[in-house]
Amino acid sequence: MGGIAAIAKAMGHKVTGSDSNVYPPMSTQLEALGIELTQGFDEQQFDPQPDMVVIGNALSRGNLAVEYVLNRGLPYTSGPQWLLENVLKDRWVLAVSGTHGKTSTSSMLAWILESAGMSPGFLIGGIPQNFAISARLGETPFFVIEADEYDSAFFDKRSKFVHYRPRTLVINNLEFDHADIFDSIADIQKQFHHLIRMLPGNGLVIAPKADSHITQVLDKGCWSPVQFVGSDWQVLNALPDGSEFDVVYKGSVFGRVKWSLLGQHNVQNAMMAIIAARHAGVLPDVAIEALGSFVNAKRRMEVLGTVNNITVYDDFAHHPTAIATTLEGLRAKVGDARILAVLEPRSNTMKMGVHKQTLAKSWSKADQVFIYQPSNLTWSMDALLVQSEVTASVHSDLDILEKSILSYVQPGDHVLIMSNGGFGGIHQRLLQKLSQ
């Protein structure tokens, strides 16, 4: 929603907005753009009356602002619908979808197009550090968008991405997630097939060869060409940490990526971005060179600081697969150095306990695990301690969690903090205490 606000501002509109808990980096981006922000949903924000109210999918009936809009008959729409009608309908949309890696892959793709001189517009669910903004209108027909399967609004339960009408579609992977709105993987697959039905015949679907859930979706019917990573497109001679790899198409080597990112998941993300950019007209060798200067989005294995030889990272991981791949990448980089994993189970799916059978196995590459159990969690995480292959502890108080980490950490350690929220500012609190 912050990115949509930024695009609307760039189009010349006066933009204001509200939310209940806004934190960096989005809060600071909005301030820098001069977008007035209301904390909470006070009705006074609708004076003077807006021409359009764009309602995010986090809001539902009963919210003060929502009820005011409905009672007064104010014009309203969803964020995805507004984007379609005002921005995307005349653009070549390159959409990046999937359970994991959307932010990183769309950031890579936008940077590749930018490096090729194509000045794309983009809307990304994080802040790509090559651009320092999460969204922009762009100057050409090309528009890169992070295409989420979450619902559009309380009045539109279709996935957001069905509004985007892409010509180029990346499907990174497909797992069960968002248990608060989907009952099964089949429900999610149905939404992905709605998206595929909208792709033009001269469009392109890009997917991994080995993902059975994606294969099942494509088997329901696909009217566009499909290119797979793992068949025609391959990765060869990759270093264990993913920092270098060769890009190969039908046996021909296009070049070797040498970059700052880690993990085999990011290698696959890069392949997706290279193929998508090629569909839009960017030669693979140009894309490979661009990735050499790519800096991942904030909160994606972002190094926040190194104090007394202790490195603190911030990562958005919110699903067992994302936790596992992030830790695998870090382990490949640091070797035998100790990794301390600090986890906040904040996503709706995690809070519901859907992943509790696989969560303990996901952090097996860490040496020590510190888990925060918030008061609104509907299940106890104590059972995970028995399942865990490494020493783990559960804390319901952030201050005690912080003290526990500080009492254990020592020079040479890597502290990986994983949450898709603000986590009570524990990142900066730890860095400050470590510096003392």
UniProtKB/TrEMBL annotation:
According to UniProt, the reaction catalysed is: UDP-N-acetyl-alpha-D-muramate + L-alanyl-gamma-D-glutamyl-meso-2,6-diaminopimelate + ATP = UDP-N-acetyl-alpha-D-muramoyl-L-alanyl-gamma-D-glutamyl-meso-2,6-diaminopimelate + ADP + phosphate + H(+)
Which SUPFAM superfamilies does the UniProt entry name for this protein?
MurCD N-terminal domain, MurD-like peptide ligases, catalytic domain, MurD-like peptide ligases, peptide-binding domain
Which intervals hold domain Mur ligase C-terminal? Answer: 299-421
Q: What is its EC number?
A: 6.3.2.45
Query: What's one Pfam family the UniProt record gives for this protein?
Result: Mur_ligase_C
The reply on keyword Iron is no
Q: What class of enzyme is it?
A: ligase
Which Gene3D superfamilies does this one have? Mur ligase, C-terminal domain (3.90.190.20), Mur-like, catalytic domain (3.40.1190.10), NAD(P)-binding Rossmann-like Domain (3.40.50.720)
Which biological pathway?
Cell wall biogenesis; peptidoglycan recycling
Question: Which intervals hold domain Mur ligase central?
Answer: 96-277
Could you state one GO biological process linked to this protein?
peptidoglycan biosynthetic process
- Annotated binding of ATP, by residue: 98-104
Q: Does the keyword Methyltransferase apply?
A: no
An example molecular function term from Gene Ontology annotations: ATP binding
Source organism, top-level taxon: Bacteria
Residue span, Mur ligase N-terminal catalytic domain: 1-84
**Which keywords has UniProt assigned to this entry?**
ATP-binding, Cell cycle, Cell division, Cell shape, Cell wall biogenesis/degradation, Ligase, Magnesium, Nucleotide-binding, Peptidoglycan synthesis
Which coenzyme or cofactor does it need? Mg(2+)
Role, per record = Reutilizes the intact tripeptide L-alanyl-gamma-D-glutamyl-meso-diaminopimelate by linking it to UDP-N-acetylmuramate.
Record-linked HAMAP family: Mpl
Query: Which family does the record claim for this protein?
Result: Belongs to the MurCDEF family. Mpl subfamily.
This chain belongs to which protein, by name?
UDP-N-acetylmuramate--L-alanyl-gamma-D-glutamyl-meso-2,6-diaminoheptandioate ligase
Taxonomic source organism: Paraglaciecola polaris LMG 21857
